[in-house]
Amino acid sequence: MTEAKIREILELVAARRLSAGAALKRLRHLPFEDVGFARIDNHRGLRRGVPEVVFGEGKSVAQIAIIGRRMAASGVNLIVTRLAPEKAVVLKRKLPAFDYRPEARVGVLQSEMSERRGRGAIMVLSAGTSDIPVAEEAATCAELLGNHVERIYDVGVAGIHRLGAQLEKLDAASVLVVVAGMEGALPSVVAGLVDKPVIAVPTSVGYGTALGGLTALFGMLNSCAGGLTVVNIDNGFGAAMAATLINRVGLEDGRN
Question: N or C end of the chain, less CB within 10 A?
Answer without folding.
Answer: C
